[in-house]
Specification:
The protein is mostly beta strands. The protein folds into 7 domains: about 80 residues, Sandwich (Immunoglobulin-like), CATH 2.60.40.10; about 110 residues, Jelly Rolls, CATH 2.60.120.380; about 50 residues, no CATH class; about 120 residues, Jelly Rolls, CATH 2.60.120.380; about 100 residues, ntegrin, alpha v. Chain A, domain 3 (Immunoglobulin-like), CATH 2.60.40.1510; about 120 residues, Sandwich (Immunoglobulin-like), CATH 2.60.40; about 110 residues, Sandwich (Immunoglobulin-like). About 0% of the residues lie in helices and about 50% in strands. It is built from 1 helix and 66 strands. Strands 39-41-37-35-44-43-38-40 form an 8-stranded mixed beta sheet, with no helix packed on it. Strands 58, 60, 62, 64, 65 and 66 form a 6-stranded mixed beta sheet that branches. A hairpin with a 4-residue loop joins strand 43 and strand 44. It is flat and about 100 Å long. The protein starts with a helix and ends with a strand.
Length: about 775
């Protein structure tokens, strides 16, 4: 007995002194009711993993939450009393635990009672929540009165479900009164409206349109009467100007006045004071350029200035056509685009370009991924205006037939801009630890720097690495937490260009980017009870000036410190490269990547991560770090750590230089043409060996320059540029001199390239 007691005491002492590891981040898989009632209390049953015994809800609005007894790591039940001041709309709900924060689920918030689907409904209006599995059909019944107006709307696709809803309404005699199915105007969801013919029991039936509902297959079905907004007219307003707006929905169109807006984001609108409002919150987008509303009567033409410019209009009657005379510059290329389906409009819009006589010059209809048309049009010589018509290709029209025509320069002359994206929706930070968050840039002509900032940072949390350099793909931000604890928060990131353009950082591909765009900017920051000492990773003898050499391999040496002697550490490369796409999929051969999976076995604290550097890597610098995950014997992640971010410069192993000035005079004989000798030198660096090919590109038709090969033992090169007889005199600009070589002779098609050298030929006619 005495020995047993001593062993128990020793075990207890070990448990008290062993450091606590971070539990796995919580996973929120499902919630039975995907909605909360404003001014009321709603019971939610959450299913997931690693929810712990005391989970909390992270909500972006005031609400009192009460965790009911009996919570398990896989299920928790909450009573949520939502404050009466909360604005109706869609929101994202997350779960906080000692292990961090979960990914979000979309919920609806309004004043309707929120209930799980039941066989009967006691009162209307109501919001019912449930699932439709496979080929199944679900039903509910309610008592109706003669001449009672009833709406039934199913929200599924808009909330992230894969259910393609079809809803039926049957009367007391079992005859179908009405039915509706998925529609693009509701983003794949459905709504029906009916006037009940008699008093009695009515049945609502719901199923998948193909009787093959795939998971997740949840829904929220509203029955009764409520107020909603489907469309805003105009959908986009100019920055710095007030605007009268029309809300299109139920019960009727409403006029509201929007004060001058000065930001470039989606601007949420306030609901009108009267009405039981439900559904996604209405918003307008703020435009940086001129915005007009169609003012001319039917059959008349409206004049628009030269772009970039946009105009919003409506095709009210069938086979209507709105025409705009647009000022243009001869020889320029324009991008003409109509937004209709993407604004929830029922139009199948088409674009028609006409001349002053009304003759059709060009036409565009559907474009990839949408029914909306896009047309790139080159203005003919001596043409100072074109007529652009917007029509419905099916001859439709009506008060909901809104559209927006955008006219802007195409190609290099387009306004420089950029967009910012991240793949991270959450940050779970250990005590005194760091977290690394990637931000990528999609450059639209703009090659300058971007300064990043966070809207909200908890006390004791700092943000480092906030500069995206000129020409770079992005940056790896470092969030560093101190010793203090903090409450979980929802924050956003923004980036500002050198010219002052300010853009939000979006979660790329977020399902609600079109419905409520601000939800695509949310990032949850949460503390964990783990300490940074539980898992640490750092570089081991990595030179301070380490760089990336295209076409080579590189070994990243690291060291780790971890708690526990039965855990392995998984290493994963993270970079700021935006992977190039082929057929809309990442091209692995052009991606900076680790060569193979790497795990450090038990008790091994030093390791190496080999990486492959693609041959055509083109950015000036890239941020690099390694994520370490502490894996328990069951492979669950117990802790996460990141090596300090290193910004590594690109080191091209090849350079080319001209043997003289970049502007070269070329005397041209009109009868014989001209031959000019180009000389220069190549420089091999970073251990590059072998033959180098030198080329000159950008020559106009008729001129030619043969590629030249510089053998492995040589550096100098020369080649002729030949211009034919009667070649026009003048400057030939935009010529690019470059060199390429294969780092590995066994892979001759994998080539690294030098920076391009610009060359201008100044052609002067000589002789007769």
């Amino acid at each position: 007995m005495k020995c047993t007691a001593l062993r128990l005491l020793a075990l207890a002492a070990l448990c008290l002194t062993a450091p606590a590891l971070q539990g796995a981040e919580p996973v929120l898989r499902n919630v039975d009711v995907r909605g909360l009632q404003i001014g009321g209390t709603t019971t939610l049953v959450l299913d997931g993993d690693d929810l712990g015994k005391t989970p909390r809800l992270l909500l972006p609005f005031p609400a009192k939450q009460t965790l009911k007894p009996g919570a398990t790591p896989n299920r928790a039940t909450f009573d949520v009393a939502t404050d009466a001041s909360v604005t109706p709309g869609y929101y994202q709900m997350r779960v906080l635990t000692d292990g961090g924060v979960s990914l979000p689920l979309v919920i609806t918030v309004d004043r309707l009672p929120q209930k799980p689907l039941a066989a009967t409904v006691d009162q209307l209006p109501v919001a019912l929540h449930g699932v439709v599995s496979g080929s199944g059909t679900v039903e509910t019944k309610f008592q109706g009165k003669a001449k009672q107006k009833v709406m039934i709307e199913v929200e599924a696709q808009r909330l992230g479900s894969k259910l393609r809803p079809v809803v039926h309404l049957f009367g007391p005699s079992k005859l179908q009164i009405a039915w509706s199915w998925s529609t693009p105007t509701l983003f794949g969801d459905t709504r029906l409206e009916a006037v009940l013919p008699e008093a009695g029991t009515y049945t609502v039936s719901l199923h998948d349109s193909e009787y093959a509902a795939q998971a997740p297959n949840f829904f929220r079905m509203r029955i009764g009467e409520w107020s909603f907004v489907d469309q805003i007219f105009p959908p986009v307003v100019a920055r710095g100007k007030g605007q009268a707006l029309e809300l299109l929905g139920m019960p009727a169109a409403l006029q509201v006045n929007l004060p001058a807006a000065n930001n470039l984001d989606a601007l949420p609108l306030s609901w009108p004071k009267d009405g039981l409002w439900s559904g996604p919150r209405p918003f307008v987008t703020v435009s940086p350029h001129a915005e007009f509303v169609k003012q001319s009567p039917a059959g008349k033409m409206q004049d628009l200035p030269e772009g970039p410019v946009a105009v919003s209009g409506r095709l009210v009657t069938p086979y209507d056509e709105d025409r705009y005379r647009i000022a243009v510059t001869p020889g320029t290329k324009l991008r003409l685009e109509v937004f209709a389906e993407r604004y929830g409009s029922p139009l199948d819009a088409a674009l028609v370009v006409r001349n002053d006589k009304g003759d059709q010059l060009a036409r565009a209809e559907d474009s990839p991924g949408t029914l909306d048309p896009v047309l790139e049009y080159t203005v003919p010589p001596k043409v100072n205006s074109i007529i652009v018509g917007v029509i419905d290709s099916q001859g439709g029209g009506g008060p909901r037939g809104i559209y927006r025509l955008v006219v802007s320069p195409a190609g290099p002359s387009a306004k420089e801009s950029f967009k910012l994206f991240t793949s991270a929706q959450r940050v779970s930070m250990p005590i005194a630890g760091r977290w690394v968050l990637p931000v990528m840039i999609e450059r639209k002509g703009y090659q300058g720097k971007i300064d990043l900032s966070a809207a909200v940072l908890p006390a004791g949390v700092k943000l480092d690495g906030t500069l995206i350099p000129e020409g770079a793909d992005g940056a790896l931000l470092t969030l560093q937490r101190g010793e203090a604890n903090f409450d979980g928060v929802i924050s956003t990131l923004r980036g500002r260009g050198a010219g002052g353009e300010d853009r939000p950082v979006l979660l790329k591909g977020h399902p609600l980017e079109r419905l409520q765009p601000w939800l695509a900017t949310e990032i949850a920051l949460a503390p964990t009870l783990a300490k940074a000492a539980d898992l640490q990773i750092d570089w081991r003898d990595l030179p301070a000036d380490a760089g990336l050499v295209p076409g080579n391999k590189m070994v990243l040496p690291i060291k780790v410190v971890r708690t526990g002697d039965k855990t392995t550490v998984k290493l994963t490369l993270m970079t700021s490269q935006k992977p190039p796409l082929v057929n809309n999929q990442p091209d692995i051969n052009k991606t900076l990547r680790q060569e193979k999976p790497v795990e450090l076995p038990v008790k091994i604290d030093k390791g190496e991560l080999p990486i492959i550097i693609p041959a055509d890597l083109s950015g000036p610098v890239y941020d690099v770090t390694i994520q370490a995950e502490l894996l328990a014997p069951d492979k669950k992640v117990q802790a996460v750590a990141f090596a300090p971010v290193r910004r590594m410069a690109l080191r091209l192993p090849l350079a080319v230089a001209l043997g003289g000035p970049n502007r070269i005079d070329v005397p041209l004989d009109p009868k014989k043409g001209a031959t000019v000798l180009i000389k220069g030198k190549v420089e091999r660096k970073e251990g590059l060996k072998g033959d180098v090919q030198v080329t000159l590109t950008g020559l106009p038709p008729g001129a030619r320059a043969d590629a030249v090969t510089v053998k492995a033992a040589a550096a100098d090169f020369s080649f002729n540029v030949i211009l034919p007889p009667n070649f026009a005199a003048g400057e030939i600009k935009g010529l690019k001199l470059s060199a390429s070589a294969a780092p590995d002779a066994k892979q001759p098609n994998v080539r690294v390239r030098s920076k391009e050298v610009e060359v201008t030929l100044v052609v002067k006619t000589v002789g007769k």
